[in-house]
Amino acid sequence: MTSVTPHLPPGQFEPELINLLADAIPTGRAVSATALAVDPTHLRTGRGLVSERRCVDALIRMHWDRCLDLELFEGTCEIAFHPDTGVPQIYASEATTSAFYSASEQTMEMLGALITDRWCPGETPLAIETWMTLLTGDEATDSFDPRLMTRSATLTGGLLEQSHYLILCLALLTRMSPDEVLRRFALMDRGPLDELLGPNPDDVSVETACAHVMAVFYRNHTDGAE
């Protein structure tokens, strides 16, 4: 792609971008929109980078929706900016199992990623936008209010971080790997624990839940680290 401007009058579209999408997306290929690159080296602040990418993102999605209206192809638009060049890669997402996860299952997935990886500072602005979109569940929602973004990202990020430390502590106590602890926690029957969530659980419920947790996390414990 060679000549597209992100500043188009309302209701007008760039034919070249429409043609590129119509040619590539139905065949499973991605479009590398070089003319829409947002070069991070040309922007002084992270806020400027997020703002420019948001404008380009909106332009691309407007053209994508136009293609859907013309029935040129189907699918959900995905956009990934190259970390060095800033060139957006445009492609259609495929339905995955994670798309149907509940909120708790999504949290477990993020915890699993957190155990072995961490966001680098340069990824933070885009990660916040992704997280806010996940929270709202609707890209049309104005989820980019700076105060809402900061508070929600801080709160949820802090909760995930604390959960990460809890997993690590449990792994050290049981001499299991964090991955194994998380796997057992995800598969554990929560029934005995539910009895403890109400007010004033009795001693029998406490003992039952304790024995259940010990059986889950200390199984094969005598064999050493897993």
Would you write up a description of this structure?
The chain is mainly α. 53% of the residues lie in helices and 6% in strands. The protein is built from eight helices and three strands, in the order H-E-H-E-E-H-H-H-H-H-H. It has helices at residues 15-24, 46-69, 103-116, 124-136, 146-174, 178-187, 191-194, 203-217, and strands at 31-32, 76-81, 88-93. Strands 1-3-2 form a three-stranded antiparallel beta sheet. It is elongated, with a radius of gyration of 23 Å. It starts with 14 loop residues before the first helix and ends in a 9-residue tail after the last helix. Residues 1-5, 119-123, 139-143 and 221-226 have low confidence and may be disordered.
Helix-strand topology string: HEHEEHHHHHH
**Biggest sheet architecture:** 3 strands, antiparallel
Q: Give the low-confidence spans.
A: 1-5, 119-123, 139-143, 221-226
Indicate the structural class: mainly alpha
Q: How are the strands of the largest sheet arranged? A: 1-3-2
Distance between the termini: 51 Å
Q: Give the strand content.
A: 5-15%
Write down the overall geometry.
Answer: elongated
Radius of gyration: 23 Å
Give me the count of strands. Answer: 3
Work out the helix count.
Answer: 8
Look at the structure and give the mean pLDDT. 77
Helix content: 40-55%
Quick recap:
The protein is mainly alpha-helical.
